[in-house]
Amino acid sequence: MKDLYDDSYFMRRAIEEAKIAFQKDEVPVGAVIVSNNQIIARAHNLTETLNDVTAHAEMQAITSAANYIGGKYLKDCTLYVTLEPCQMCAGALYWSQISKIVIGASDIHRGFRTMKTKIHPKTKIIDGLLSNESKELIDDFFKKKRGLQ
Q1: Choosing from 58, 84, 133, 136, which is the catalytic residue?
Q2: Which of 75, 87, 132 is nearest to 113 (CA)?
Q3: Which of 19, 41, 102, 116 could lock 33 by a disulfide, CB 3.0 to 4.6 Å apart?
Q4: Who contacts 112 (Cβ-Cβ below 8 Å, separation ≥6)?
């Protein structure tokens, strides 16, 4: 029997968050943080809404999860994020000591790997889960912004 709460299940919840961002005219990136098969934080980009360049989905999720658990370290937690984190978010994830990061679409322009930013050495990374769905949201958003849709 397939586990109902697998990585795909939680990535779909992150995609739901990205769709909320899209509806708010934010770059559609969504994130959830999970501990013991329970979502403890949900977030999406809020940079336009808050007029804050640091209000990325990952940053919002890290803060929410830390508040939920009552501590700054996210050991035994997993971040599901629809787009590869930037170097700012990767730095915050490094310091949070999160155990696992599951990434939807790669960001070849501003992703942490392109910028050569390190993730905590104990953090496991899974790449490309539901990448087509994640990439399609980003592509549709920028086509709309450029008047191509």
Answers
A1: 58
A2: 87
A3: 41
A4: 84, 85, 86, 87, 89, 90, 119
